[in-house]
Every structure is written in C-alpha cells, then in structure tokens.
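Researcher: Go.
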Amino acid sequence: MWKGRRRWPVVAGLVAVGVVVAGIATAYVRRISPPWPAVAGVPYSIAVADDGCPIVPDSVQFVDSPGPLVPTGPTEAVLCTIPTGALPATAQDPDEPRTRVLHAGAVDFAALLNTLPDRNTNWRQWQRKHSGFWPDAPPEMVCPMIGYRYDYSFVLRYPDRPPVALISKCGTGGLTTGVRTRIDASTPHMVDAFLERFRVQR
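Model: Structure:
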C-alpha cells in the first residue's frame, strides 16, 4: 500500500513534465509555422503609360496568391527609372535614362523573377540563416526612412499577351504585379541583376 502511495508523486511528476514538453512543442510548431496566409489582399491592375512604364498607384496594398510571379517567355524586359526628387544629380552620379530594354536576356530575367520567394518562404529562409533554437518572430513591414534618387519598376512584354508591370514601393511589401508579391531580398537585387544583363547585351 505504501509503495503505491510513493508512486503517485513520481507519476504526477512525469505527467507534469509531459504537459510542459507538449506545451513547448506546440509553441515551437506555432512559432515556425507560416505566419501569413498564402492568399492575401484584393488584386489590382497596374496600368502601363504611353512611354511603356508602369503608372504607379498613389496608394497600394500587399496582395499575394500562389503561383509564378510573371508568365514565362517575354520578348523584352524594361527597367523604368523614376526620379524621386530626394537627391540631386552630381557629376559622379549623373541622371539615369528613363528606360532600358533587355532583349536577349528577357527570358532569363523572367525566370530569375520567378525564383523570388513569397513572404512566408523568405521568412523561413531568414530564420534558417539567423535564428537560434527559438526562431525570431516575423518582422512587421515598415517603410524605411531613407531618401533614394530613383524608384525602379519593370515591364515585361510578350508576343501573345498584354505586358506585365512590376512595381516596388512602400505598401507593396516587395516586388508586385498587383496579383502576386515576392520579396526581393536576394543579392544581387533585381535591378542590379537586370543591369548586369543589360551591360552584357550592349
């Protein structure tokens, strides 16, 4: 009888440990689970102006859905440069052209765009590189208070479909078509990757 009574504290201790372990495991799974839904926002159209560059809306929101960022097989990829007025031009940093058009490398550039991760994948990749045993919480999207001379956007032109515009500005959360958004956190960034191909083309 006394042996049975002595077992109760041991059993209770094991149950308590099991509850704690289960709680930690549940919290860990929640911590590493994708924090955002795969489908978000209401898709919107990004019009293309007569000069071939996107008309960037005054107000934009984050929007996303599964699938490739852009269709494959463009005939041209256009880099559009938009002066912000934040910084003046200098002799060492002259004005950039309004548009630069990539021909032979357009298909490769579209494929590169489609390798960009969505925000859940980008967060998981960041976690693997930087977090310890207990992953960091996903960051909140904020607009950096940094002045740049230019904003950049892209337009992909196709032989059998309307052009696809991509913009990136505060509120989009990344590079977006108005239907899907991907995070341009790679190195080199997409503008630099475009310019590398553009220089080779020339």
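Model: The chain has two domains: 1-33, 76-201.
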